[in-house]
Design brief:
Blueprint: H1 3-37, H2 52-85
Helix pairs in contact: 1-2
Protein name: DUF4235 domain-containing protein
Transmembrane segments: 12-29
Keywords: Membrane, Transmembrane, Transmembrane helix
Length: 91
């Protein structure tokens, strides 16, 4: 399989992985935030009762968890794709 063909064939897997990463990281973030802040929900940017520090910290933690989860799922998907096809989808 050519690298272009592999990239096209991998697209649905990558899309599903991105959705899965969002769901998993959202659930993980909710649990992490409960432990960090002892609150059920993270502060939103437009909620006036929270400080700038709290809002930015929540966003940073959420973003870091999403990025790490997405990278792990993307990498696992690419490795599985390679095992099935013999072609790495990212090259």
């Amino acid at each position: 399989m050519s690298s272009t063909g592999a990239k096209l064939a991998y697209r649905p897997i990558g899309l599903a992985g991105g959705i899965l990463a969002g769901v998993v990281s959202g659930a993980v973030f909710k649990q992490v935030w409960k432990r960090i802040a002892h609150e059920d929900d993270a502060p939103g940017a437009m909620q006036s009762e929270y400080s700038m520090k709290e809002v930015v910290l929540a966003a940073a933690v959420q973003g870091a968890l999403f990025a790490a989860t997405k990278a792990a799922i993307d990498r696992a998907g690419a490795r599985g794709f390679t095992r099935l096809t013999g072609t790495w989808p990212g090259d």
